[in-house]
Amino acid sequence: MLSKFRSVPSICNGLLVHRFINTNPLCTMLHHQDSPQSPELPPWVKFSDTPSSPDTNDDFVIPSLAPWVDAHVFNPHPTKPINQSSMLNNEDGVEAITTLLKKQPYLSFDQVAQALDAHGFQVSAALVQQILKRFSNDLIPVFGFFKWAKSQTGYVHSPELFNCMVDILGKLKRFDLMWDLVKEMAKLDSGYLTLGTMVKVMRRLSKNRKHEEAIEAFRGLEDFGVDKDTKALNLLMDALVKGDSIEHAQNVFLEFKTSISLNSYSFNILIHGWCKVGNFDMARKTMENMKEHGFNPDVFSYTSLIEAHCRDKDFRKVYQVLEEMKGNGCNPNAVTYTTVMLALGKAGQLSEAMELYMKMSSDGIVADAPVYSALIFSLGKAGRLKDACDVFDDMPKQGVVRDVVTYNTMISIACAHSKEETALRLLKEMGEVSCKPKLETYHPLLKMCCKKKRMKVLKFLLAHMFQNDLSPDVGTYCILVHGVCKSGKLDVACSFFEDMVLQGLTPKDSTVKLLVGELESKGMLKEKEHVENLMARVTHKQNAGLV
DNA sequence: CTAGGGTTAG
Known about the structure:
Elements: H1 2-15, H2 25-31, H3 66-74, H4 85-103, H5 109-117, H6 125-134, H7 139-150, H8 159-171, H9 175-187, H10 195-207, H11 211-219, H12 230-242, H13 246-256, H14 264-276, H15 280-292, H16 299-311, H17 315-327, H18 334-346, H19 350-362, H20 369-381, H21 385-397, H22 404-416, H23 420-432, H24 439-452, H25 455-467, H26 474-486, H27 490-502, H28 509-521, H29 525-544
The structure holds one DNA strand.
């Protein structure tokens, strides 16, 4: 153990062409002790002018970040100064409509339309796109707006926007409305309803365990003027596999293999499906079947096998398959190596991950952003913040552009070590390098803020999220409710819970249980009743299939 | 159109 550990630094030194220089601010920050328990506050702490509750640590704001934070907290939707007047109208329109849609809980699509009618909004494709993105979790506002926009004279939704709306309805599990819209598209000009539309339909149905309905959608493709070809079949099988039913995918394969021609993708999708459920026998049988059809197992087939063995942490088998594929003239690529490196890192086998990186390099494979992310993750997991930082810093020097996962990984590491300044700075930098944050980017940050009771920063993050057209999903609310509950802020937990339900999201059982339990133990019976009433409404709506 | 990234809390 110890010898392995000792060997790592030298490997790591060899890895990096440019050694890290200690003056890098990011690195200094990571090593700076944030000292959360220290009674002595660092000299640069700024005291907020808003009074905070004694149980809140809002006062902590890093001076250089404070203006950035304040701008979002106090003005979540600033209108960007734009010179061109046409652009100004659009930007203004988006903000004005956003405000209007958020203003009150609308009870019907028509109510939304009425509210919109009262203003003289000018509709454009860009505006509709922005609103659909912003309100993709809010059925009544988003669909009410979509219908209203459709009826505006001089404006017609593009096929892309119809597809986007179909996808949103599927995401919101309103399959009745989704099908109505699909049928409506079929009646419009050709070019509206395409395979692209039906892929969204099949994916959303599969994801919601409506596998039979997804297969029915495929069967009916020709009625909508879409070909039932190899590509369509593969997309259906892939949707079924991703919707956790390799069995349905296999049945579809058996049913259509004589009428629709197959390609290597068809087999790889099934191999992936069998690997996903850990059925190596069927994965191997499918590989044999693949050969009988004249296709050789390729890097996709083998990487699926390797990934499954990685999940089992069966690295002996992983190395075996690596040898096997090379023996069959199929070389592992960056994806294969990343899969194994990350699994090793997760399993705490950092030096093995590093060795594999070197092996990859000696094979002449150039590291891309995911490879670097896997390295960074492994180093972070092993507590080697400085080295993780070095690798992150090395990326641009090697001509590799950091992507959203690279940032997510770095932010996760920083948050896990309570380096909130670093984490926030990374988020800020993402905006500057136009690497758009995703919901997952915020999750570790939100978790950390809840834990440290940074309510002001929490508020800032939520505003920042919205400005990036991201709205919290069930997972986000889960983190928020659990996080503030554990910090004893039950009132805040209740208001997050209410938001979640009003958004039409279904809280997880564990979330309800935790919140109700906490409220009960604190004797907050009125709040507890409120939560239970909210839950009853959710259940009722679901049973009735209502909006 | 097929394989890689991040992920609550218990």
